[in-house]
Every structure is written in C-alpha cells, then in structure tokens.
Structure prediction request, 376 residues.
Amino acid sequence: MVDHVWPTKRQQIHTVQERFLGCMLGGAVGDALGAPVEFMSRDEILDCFGEKGITQYSTAFGGLGNITDDTQMTLFTAEGLIRAWVSGCLKGISTYSVVTAHAYLRWLKTQGERPNIDIDVDETGWLFQHRQLRSCRAPGNTCISALQEMDSLGEPAVNDSKGCGGVMRVAPVGLFSWRLSQNESPEDAFGLGTELAALTHGHPTGSLTAGVLAVLILALTDGASLADALQVSKAILREEPNHEETLQFIEKAESLVGSGLPHPEAIARLGGGWVAEEALAISIYCSLVASSFEHGVILAVNHDGDSDSTGAITGNLLGAKLGVSAIPAEWLEPLELREVITELAEDLYAFKEWDIGEDSDNEELKQPIWQKYPGF
Prediction:
C-alpha cells in the first residue's frame, strides 16, 4: 500500500470547483484545438498555420471549437460514474465498471453502431439526449470494435491494443475519486482508471496509463504539484505487473524537461501519441514545462501524431492544476457543448451532497436525479 504522500492543504470550496471545471473544460479545449491537425505532421502544421503552429481554433467537423470522440467518451465516463453512484444509493448495489461500460455502449450508439447488449431506450438519461453528441468525430477503431464485441458488461477487452483511446477518457475518474472522499486512496483511483480503460484496451500499457492519469488528476485536484503527483503515481505503478513500458515513458518525459532540448524536439522523442504511453508522456512533458495553460496546450497539439488526444490530456492536467480561470476566454466561448460539459463537471462535484440514499424521503430530489442519471 502506497501512502497518500503528496503535501495537502485546506482549499476553499470555490478553488476545488474551479479545478473540476478546469479539468473537464480544459480537456475539451485541448481536444478542440488539436482536432483540425490530428492527422498532420508538424511540418504540415507549420506550413498551414505559420511558424508558431496552430494557436487558435480552426475549422474541424464543420465548425470552430468542435470536440472529437475524446471529449465525447470523457463525458460518458463521467456520466457512467455518477449513474453508478446514483444506482448504489437508490438500488443498494452497483459496480462502477459495469455501469460505465453501459455508458460506453450508449456512446457507441451515438456513433450509429449497434452493440451486442441491448440498451433500454427509456433509460438512456440526460446526456444521451444531446443530439450534438450523435456525430462521428473520428472515433478510435479499437474503442468501436471492442464495444461492438462486448458480450458482458464490465469484462475487460480481449484484444492486445495499447492505443491512447483508454487513457484519453479517464480524467473524470480522478475528479470522482476526490469527491468520494478527500482522503480517497490513490490506489483506488488508479485501479478504477485502469479498469475502465481495460474495457476497450487489453494491453497492460493501454490501461495502466489510465490508472496513472486518474491519480494525477486526483492529486492535482487536491492541490498537489505535478511533480508530487507523479511521485505517488509512479510508486503505485511500480507495484503493478507489466508496468515497465509505462514507467519508462513517464521517466523519459521527466528527464526531457531538464534536457535543454527545444520543446518540439523533446516532444518528437516521445513519439506521436497514437499509443497510450506516448500520449501520456507527451502530456506530462507539456504540463511540466508549461508557463500557462495556453502555452502547455499549444505545445501539446503542434507535433506529429495524435494532436487532439495529447491536447485533451494536457488540458485535463493543466485545467485541474490551474482551474478554469486559466483557460483563455476566446477558447471557452465557442467551445462545442460548453454548457453540457460545465453541467456535468458541476454534477461531478455536487453528487456527493445529493440526499437520495435509501434512508432519504426526499422524493422531490430523487425523481429528477433518477430521470437525469437513471439505472440501466
């Protein structure tokens, strides 16, 4: 068991709420900024946008500030976790991986795909009703195929994929874990992040990276520095089998921070971000060297490879660290589904205070909460 060792300090409620909003909106902003250049090389990006690369939204999927599958799946992760908690309160039993797997099947349905497991159309809940989510935004092949083939909710995928589609969607696990208890064990957050990523990505690196990100978000939300958060997450990671590849890339990112290399060259040494360990390492590097939210996210999208995913993860990290006020207004205002992302982030913070337990007689609250986040 690894002790919760990052230095903690009392935070004002407003500060923590700002971190929740920063994490969720920051991830979406990074996703939207990287979306137009996801399949471009760095040279192509510079040729198209100038010597500084892409620094403002450009048209993607028919508009400015449009999100990709990364943010879509992040939203369904958050919704699944809340629905699992609500189900536990009102039904007395629930499993986070099972209920979140069901949330991912609802996302699959928004992509026009038919899952093997039936979805009750009468209990799809609030998030599924937003028609803007029913748009294909270059979804990952592994996520689609693994969910199509899922025969039992909560069972890990049987593939050997370590694509970044597992890690890029689990930031809400860190927020949810913090809200369950300020003293929530980081091992529990790690385990839940790993478990949710493994629903679609069967390679150990494809899921262990998600456990690391969950702990980083938990620690940053708690007011820890990124350096301290990394120390705790690495200590937990070392206890896991098959951790070597993930640890190697994290430590490579840390070493490049002090290497003196220009940022683009350092990022290039970490790969393109298509696989989980590269995406996590690039995001950690960009977050460690960032002088501001804007600086870090711009670094994270101007490289060869999966720019929207590295932008999203970096946005999650820096948003949790710096809060929503650090995100430039010109990036927030046109952001697609901004109000939905904000409401879900607020519910991630508020759910613990909902008086809907088995002993509660607050029917006026139970009914709307169940309609918004029903069981399945």
User: Anything to note?
Assistant: The chain has 18 helices and no strands.
